[in-house]
Amino acid sequence: MKRKILEYLICPACLPEENPLRLGHSQSSGGEISDGVLQCGGCKQAYPIKSGVAALVADHARLSGEGLRYEAPELLSAYLWSHYADLFKDPEATGAYSEWAGQISPAAGAALDAGCAVGRFCFEMSLKCDLVIGVDLSETFISMARQIMEQRKLNFRLKQEGRIHSEKAFVLPAQWDSNKVEFIVADAGALPFRSGAFNCVASLNLIDKIPHPLEHLGEASRIARPNEAQLLISDPFSWSEAVCAPDRWLGGAPDGRFAGAGIDNIARVLSDDNRSGTPAWRIVRRGAVWWKIRNHRNHFELIRSLFVKAER
Asked: Is 6 exposed, middle or buried (0-12, 13-18, 19+ CB in 10 A)?
């Protein structure tokens, strides 16, 4: 973990109170902390750093529950393809992550990618901001993203069919600055960052995959600056009762508070959101990005992810 992100961190277990985390015993080299403990001075909860990966999740049951869905090797292969297939010239690759990054204007300060998976958007954003932090509940995804960050290349096994795999490799473009990027394990519904810390917050294909989507929107708004901030929310809105109770969906319902389409409800929530005392968001752009998940060479999922870009 990069030492420079310590100033951004707070204890997620203490929210809405914001208690900073202090580094306890640790092993480090230069600006990198390889192993150690982050301690809350309020509730005294300790968060481990192991092999460079900080796990800042207040409810450890989430790591073995919701996060466990994304630890399977086959899913890792699918997401690596989705994020990086264009770098090894796969003809089926999309330019989705470049399109999402294209919605963000360059600005001084830090950016957060909530639900970063294996990290592609963070590397794209290194061209736009001074620091980019990616968070995900999957330890497998975060460990892989950090490996790519450190080595700037990857050889991995890509599923072809059944137990048949091929070897793929890619190298990060020279212009993507790994020194500006960090990845940590964290819960999108209880982000371990101080209020107003980020000039840009992105949440890509996450809202419909978490049990408390409205809490996540509130957290995204809390950690963004009160002014001169950007917010990008994009999602296909594939609501599922297996992930989230229907009464918590932000769309896909014929009646109730969030009746209608999810993208319309999110735009409305953002425009009305001044619960934290900060200004509401102004919707500046809406659109869609097509992206793919590859399960094996004969099975692709083509997904339309609707987005809103907001500023305040």
From this structure: middle
